[in-house]
Design goal:
316 residues; mainly alpha; three-stranded mixed beta sheet; 12 helices; globular
Length: 316
């Protein structure tokens, strides 16, 4: 596992010992162990993103995270029937399953990386290894039923949060197996009909996957991944032209897609579109202190001072 300098957060204050590092314009290798710059033709990023585990909390914040580890968040596997290891298609592909395990594992694993809790890290490893073991010869992984459950083609929405969980695992552990596993999965995705990007719950949320595809491209240099990014942008919901959906989750996961695509397209209109969508949303619904927006599942005029606060973190 690569060793990173540790940033300490004490009650929300960022220690100066490990601030974000400025990136050089790069088209090749890591600038430091565990850190990757954008390869050409991707536009260079302004800062290096700290990997999972590089930030550890002290004081009040550490106390809150410890409460999460010992509370429902850290014990949810023991409470939810969706998270039964022996009864989910994310472990046994012939069984059912949808978004529940991916959503949970994404946050659960990150909780382990930022706290270093041995139990959470061990449970995360058990799940990640099981998910990887479901991968078929054509690159698909997870519940087999998802291969054709959306209008006759694959429903890949549940894979979007799972890709984040797998990426965080790879970054924390330096696990290069993920390069091969995700390259194979994106090969499967590229072989799907155009409708796979336009249908279902995932249609408005593909920005999440663009981010992972570009991350993998920076690791492998496989140019076919950039073709996939172009295709995702072409056929998924058009956030560049309008707020494509009033649904809280769709907004938070979707409004940034044009700016993420800008990293490849280089068209400043794409970056500007995400800023416009954000300004529009916040002007109408941004009533939460600290920069959040409100809505009771859907953002609606006149209902802008309360809502499903569990969705707010998606903007961060």
């Amino acid at each position: 596992m690569p060793v990173h300098r540790r940033t300490v957060l004490n009650g929300g204050a960022l220690a100066a010992s490990a601030a974000l590092l400025p990136l050089r314009a790069a088209d090749a290798a890591p600038v430091a162990a565990g850190y990757l710059a954008n390869r050409a033709p991707l536009r260079p990023a302004a800062f290096l993103r700290l990997p999972p585990g590089a930030v550890r909390a002290e004081g009040w914040l550490a106390t809150q995270l410890d409460r999460q580890v010992d509370g429902i968040n850290g014990r949810y596997e023991q409470l939810s029937h969706f998270l039964r290891f022996d009864r989910t298609g994310w472990v046994h592909p012939e069984l059912g399953g949808w978004e529940e395990v991916p959503y949970w594992l994404r946050g659960f694993g990150d909780l382990g990386y930022v706290t270093g809790d041995a139990r959470v890290l061990a449970d995360t490893q058990r799940w990640v290894e099981a998910v990887l073991a479901t991968q078929a010869a054509d690159g698909f992984f997870g519940p087999t039923a998802l291969r054709g459950s959306l209008n006759g083609h694959a429903d890949l929405w549940p894979h979007m949060p799972m890709l984040h969980a797998l990426r965080s695992w790879a970054k924390y552990h330096g696990d290069t197996r993920m390069d091969t596993a995700l390259t194979r999965f994106f090969g499967f995705m590229a072989g799907q009909p155009d409708a796979v990007f336009a249908d279902g719950r995932g249609a408005t949320r593909w920005g999440d996957t663009v981010d992972v595809v570009c991350w993998l491209y920076n690791r492998t240099g496989d140019a076919t991944l950039l073709d996939l990014v172009h295709r995702i942008h072409r056929y998924s919901a058009n956030w560049a032209g309008t707020v494509a959906s009033p649904h809280n989750v769709n907004i938070a996961q979707g409004f940034r897609e044009p700016a993420q695509y800008w990293v490849l397209s280089g068209d400043d209109a794409h970056r500007a579109a995400s800023y416009r969508r954000y300004d529009e949303i916040m002007a109408a619904y941004g009533q939460f202190p600290g920069g959040g927006f409100a809505g009771d599942e859907n953002a609606r005029p006149g209902f802008d001072d309360t809502g499903t606060a569990d969705h707010l973190w998606r903007l961060l």
